[in-house]
Specification:
This protein is an alpha/beta fold and about 250 residues long. Helix content is about 20%, strand content about 25%.
Length: about 250
Amino acid sequence: MIDKVVDSAAAAVADIPSGASIAVGGFGLCGIPVSLIAALHAQGTSDLETISNNCGVDDWGLGILLTDHRIRRTISSYVGENKEFARQFLAGELEVELTPQGTLAEKLRAGGAGIPAFYTPAGVGTQVSEGGLPQRYDSAGGVAVASGRKEVRVFHGDEFVLELSVTPDFALVHAARGDRYGNLSYHATAMNFNPLAAMAGRITIAEVEELVEPEDLDPEHIHTPGIFVQRVIVAETAEKRIEKRTTALGEAER
């Protein structure tokens, strides 16, 4: 078995070049590989294409790369909590391929399974399938790049649109526990896009909160087998943020 543990986040991402495509796990601010993103930011990598459910917030997650204009293009399904994202997109500084959330998940899963494309009903009859969805604006607010029309076929009387899978150059994921062979276990809702991103990346780098010995992971609780993972680090920050805090009213406030 190959020991995949790397000493630091900086060493783990050192060979990610400018211009690379990267799948990043997480949903909102849950399960974000913040140590790996910070290391990528620190080394100055730029011109990136990211594939992630969202692009972080203004000062956290992928948002730190976005703020410094390190991301050229992103494939995402939800981008509503990042003001800088909206500004860059509307100013023509960022290319965005908005993708239905389930379709994005399947693009990653299918890519990891070696399936080049698939049909889905999501988006049929909309700009997702018919084309014309703005992906990049010019400086005057006009559409510089728009999505193209996709193939639609009928199966059993219903229409389905053809979507291409993704196999990015790298994937960055966050797991609760992992062993030195790359087997990963996620905690609760942090098992969102992380397993899918881990499958899709040609080189997958995992940060884990706890590094354990192989015999300490219950095989039934391994969510990502080590065959999908090439490097493992221990997460260098324990900070976890809440995107929106909601609390119940106390008796005196009701």
